[in-house]
Amino acid sequence: MLKNASERHLEIKRASFLELFFDLIFVYAIQKIAHVLLHTHNGTISSELFFKYVVMSLFLWIIWSHQTFYTNRFGEITAKDIGFIIFNIFVLVFLSNSLFPDFEKTFFPFFICVGILYLSISLQYFMHLKHCLSHADKRTCQSFAIVAFIVSMLSFIALIIPANTMHSHVVHYIPAFLGIFIAGTGLIPFRKYFAQSPVNMMHLVERFSLLTIIIFGEVLVGLASTFSITHFNFIYIFQFIILITLFGIYWLFTETFINDKRKTIGFRLVYSHLIINIALGLLNSAIIFSNNNELKPMFEISIMYTSILLFLIGLWLNMPHYHDKYKSRKFVLLPIVILVITFIISMIFKETIQVMVVLVALSNTLILYLYYKYK
């Protein structure tokens, strides 16, 4: 008997221990990528490094999402699914250790791992086609399988283009970045099938929130590494408040604002959480650099406020998934006003970075209070 795919979003499904174990290696990889932003040049972080950070984050996040979509819709605790997950964890260990700021050094090991991982994901979807599926589930399986297979092949093609010939250092990036583009957009034409084969929202929200909480933990570890036991500085308190208030805001949105019974294809959660992940990487750099003078004051202030704004934008993008009573413009407009005011004051006192840290902690606290008030 076929399951009713259109009712999947109403089922109770929780993340398994195996999925949580799978997340750990991803967080390690995300941490390695975030270290790219800890390299400064003339008091700034170069646009080239930021581009590399975004590209590597994008590829890693979409790999995680494509695997999670499979587990969300079709995954079961079977020998086959467990075997695929364990194999992918093994490959991800090597992918994580291939991440360097130097793209040429990263290129071969990174894309051979990407090719293998997408081939693995493609096989999972292809093999699931033999099960009795509804028409929508069958088309969904085929769509994910084909897109994953194309990305895998493009990654392998990028590897066989010689790297020591004239202009090849540019040419071999073409299929690699085309793979990124297809991984991120190649499923859009099949949205009509996904709408009939929705994700289990309860499970997907839990998966994204648990991974994000672990990333918060990594930022906390980065912050803790800058604290001195022998020379306590009052600014540590406000740096800690910045992180904890953002965590509180995310907690409120996830636990209270989002309606996990809504019918959705899940794409909005993927890209909004990619933005949140990038924001937390920027925040990690901003907080660490606020304890030294490696960045120019204006750049330090800009990167701190950019990280906060990106984080909030990632949350606001999920407004269509909120309970109706939380779909209010004031939840967007008031935080923007608070950030603009504190940003201007921070710029006025830009030569004293401690003022910026205190103001960001204050603005985050006010925003958290605003959301908690309407909980």
Automatic annotation (TrEMBL):
**Keyword Transmembrane helix: yes or no?**
yes
Phylogenetic lineage? Bacteria, Bacillati, Bacillota, Bacilli, Bacillales
Protein's organism:
Staphylococcus caeli
| Protein's UniProt keywords contain Cytoplasm | no
Q: What is this protein called?
A: Low temperature requirement protein A
- Where would you find the membrane-spanning parts of this chain? 20-38, 50-70, 82-100, 106-123, 144-164, 170-188, 208-228, 234-253, 265-289, 301-319, 331-349, 355-372
Give the InterPro entries listed for this entry.
Low_temperature_requirement_A
- Quote the Pfam families the UniProt record gives: LtrA (PF06772)
Q: Which domain of life is it from?
A: Bacteria
Q: Which UniProt keywords apply?
A: Membrane, Transmembrane, Transmembrane helix
